Amino acid sequence: MTITLQELAQHLNTEFNGEADLVIRRVNTLDKAGPDEVAFLSDSHYQHLLAETKAAAVIVKPKDQAACPVPSLVMDNPYLGFALAAQLLDTTPQPAVDIHPSAVIAEDVTLGEGVAIGANAVVETGVVLGDGVVIGAGCFIGKDCRLGARTRLWANVTLYHRVHLGEDCLIQSGTVIGADGFGYANNQGEWVKIPQLGTVTLGNRVEIGANTTIDRGALEDTTIADNVIIDNQCQIAHNVHIGYGTAVAGGTVMAGSLNIGKYCIIGGASVFNGHMDICDGVTITGMGMVMRPIDKPGIYSSGIPLQPNKEWRKTAARVMRIDDLHKRVKQLEKQTNKKN
How far, in Å, CA of 298 to CA of 224, rounded? Predict the structure, then answer.
């Protein structure tokens, strides 16, 4: 695919400086872009790379335009410009094209216009697929699922029964949505399974990474609001609610009945206790261990940063003595108060 500099500027809704018919084929980094590629500069600390760039054009902030020796497109947020340009020049194939003869589709499935279903996919009874839905090879779509228009599933995605996906969702390979939550009662040492009778509901424009699992609710539904992005290999337990615009990085684990607000940012490998609320606008840095509710927006961190092993061993030894040190401090405080 090729576009001209003028066409790219129109797509980005911005002004450009250079030849209107300059041909652009790809996007690349500022230091590696070639004469048919567009690059971007979002951090002025890397402005020194502009002098030697071989890019056809660069997306820059207004303050960096004068230093750009090649054609430029001016935006307040060049990183957003990069994202929009990458979408326009995206060469990623569709997960499926047309309906493959080996796909197994129940007779009563409702197919919208332009639906594509890949090889060996299974679509069970009662399913409704909106216009432009794409289902990759080997997917399983359980009974009575509903998929909104233009939602795409890559290969080997599993949707259990009654799962609802909104419009324009993207689900990466290996993801499982709607498996049973971890619900059991204990009867004198024997585990008694609690049937998980809810389902999972995803809003519009939700993206789920590869090999992530989202469990169905025990009674009510597990719900993911519009415009949420969840990375690879995350575990979302039953009855979790994630609010609008929240981003969850890879390896995060959320226990049951957790309620996360809007516009939160969750760093990778974070762990959340269940049955608590996290308010809107919270950022958890990587490997955060969230054991209590959070009712004020802000940035929260936990854990011990990486140290050389020799120093870490000392830190760990001191941490193990914290309780003893606390008792000694309390005793000294009492003695001091008596003297006063």
Answer: 22
